[in-house]
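Before relying on records like the one below, remember that each one covers exactly one chain. Contacts with other chains, cofactors or solvent are not represented anywhere in the record.
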Amino acid sequence: MPNQDPLAVLGDIHGNAGALAAVLAHAKARGLTRFVNLGDTFYGPLDPAGTWAVLRDHPMPTVLGNQDRILLDDAPDAVRAVRDRLDPRPLDWLAGLPGTLRPEPDVLLCHGTPKNDAAYLLEDVATGLPAPRGQDMILADILPEAKGCTLVLAGHSHHAGLAKAGGITVVNPGSVGLPAYDDDEPPHVMASGSPRAAYAVVSRTAEGWDAEFVEVDYDWESAARLARENGREDWARWLSTGLA
């Protein structure tokens, strides 16, 4: 029989140890005991070592994100700077993570899509802003990996959302550690509009899956100061405003 306990869904922590600790405390205060992590755990100008210290004491099923993956490869200075702040243990942990994972027979975890950890699943950004993708496009991107699943959990876009495709519920929890950013392939922005840390709670119901999107207060100004001290004024702005 499937586990009926709600599942706290975390993703895109990006080395924000303060946001991660706040989300875990909030979820545990609600009585949640089951957690998953959708990847992009350490990358960013914040506190990857502190993030590892929190996660080491709170193990949970985790998949590899695209910016986790580049930490394991030869990489430019920004990536090496993160890697240099980590001892071998978290890097070894990353190296052992799968790209997709089924923590339950009918639940699939991935970072972007099951086929591509750097692709958006729920959003089309051709106009520069996120717009919902069609159900047929979503279904094409999750099959055949999600065959037999009733729930797919995916991150990467930092944009909280829910869609249903072919009888499968697809949930993106938003970002624990980085509420906004911009990118140039194609040029687009993602922005939650709030500096709070985000996660989702998914629950089985008689009608299928229900998702609650949660935002948590934490000391985002300290996170912004750390980003600024590490030469990332853009991250400081995103962290302190939730705007890009």
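The CA atoms of residues 113 and 235 lie 25 Å apart.
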